[in-house]
Amino acid sequence: MAYAEKCGNNSWRVRYFTDDGTLGSISGFPTKTAARDRAEEINADQRRGTFHDPAAGRITLAEWAVPWFDALDVAPNTTAQYRSLLRNHIEPRWGASALSAITGIAVTAWAKKKRAEGYARSTTSTMVKLLTMMLADAADERLIIANPVRPNRRGRRRHERTPERVWTTPEKALRVALHAAALGGVWAGVLIITGAWTGARWGELLGLRRPNLDLARGTLTIDPDTGALLELGGRFELGPPKTAESARTITLPPFLTTLLGHQLATHSDPFVFLSLEHEHPRRSNFSRRVMRPAADGTLDRPRHRLHLPPVQPGLTFHGLRHSHKTWMIADGIPEVAQARRLGHRVPDKIQDIYSHVAPEVEARLLTNLQHRWDTALATLTELATHETALDTPLLQLAAA
């Protein structure tokens, strides 16, 4: 039971018992009556089960982050991303702040400042999302009364359309692959072709090992436990793919089984895709040294060793996955088959029940992919007679 207690010549405080039996206090009451009134409020709240210990919110965000991350149960790469955001962005601003001192308006202003510093809206949204999750869990643990961060209802209503992700055509995808082969080696071009013609993610292809590639059956299997190569704190680690649905078997068009067979013949390592140094390529390095110049061209970089025209500026490796999805839509492939191939959850419950893909649909999908490849290859083989950037060992290998 809470009660009033004199703590000086002209000051009173309220003493109360916390959930763990310790004695807490609230000081600063000028009169005994004021202290008694607050004590009665606390007693009423404790009877209703709604009392919140004001001392609990004095824990700082940095202190709360330690047990919060200990209890976090997400994929290792997600944990690494969250720790990076906490270390580089959240703790510098909020680490020393008491949980109870963090306000929604202050968080909104901080996010606005981050965007003004040049961070993408998606990046700042992830920062706010992480901070919001930490505060929501703090509220659940009764460290604060409520999560102060709520959906923003102030400012301009946003009617901007979400920018479309950059995708490309089969011909341009092959062009980018040929440029990549010239920049980083044939393996880099085969990697890009495989990404474009399977829709597999970067980590899924980098984690692909020989036992998961069945060239006789023409399949590529993403293992549910070790189907992705993750970059965690500067080191590589095999782990599960992005979602449970991501564990799947992808059928390959005939040309791709041939290319992948040549790729396997270039080395004896268990992993299918390795750099010329027989190392795992880092995503940031591959993007900077291979993907960007292959897609954007090098004409604005006169000192670059290769003179490459732009093909599809802004295309990323993940954009190859969007391209694959676009091709399947254009070819009239059913949504169920698209979802199964890309490792997406089938949205409709009825479709989820009847989620098998008929052999006829799978055959049509592969026929269409092979046709797209044959058309792109024929076009670029003809153009290579007067476009030296296209005349690479990869094109010769593909056309053989």
UniProtKB/TrEMBL annotation:
InterPro entries with a match to the protein in the record: CB, DNA_brk_join_enz, Integrase-like_cat_sf, Integrase_catalytic, Integrase_recombinase_N, Phage_Integrase
Record-annotated Core-binding (CB) domain positions: 59-139
Check the record and name the PROSITE patterns matching this protein: CB (PS51900), TYR_RECOMBINASE (PS51898)
The UniProt keyword set, sorted, is: DNA integration, DNA recombination, DNA-binding
What CDD domains is this protein classified in?
Answer: INT_ICEBs1_C_like
Recall the GO molecular function terms of this protein's record. Answer: DNA binding
- Chain ranges of the Tyr recombinase domain: 163-367
Coiled-coil boundaries:
none
Which biological process, per GO, is one annotated for this protein? DNA integration
| Family of the protein in this entry | Belongs to the 'phage' integrase family.
Q: What is this protein's name?
A: Integrase
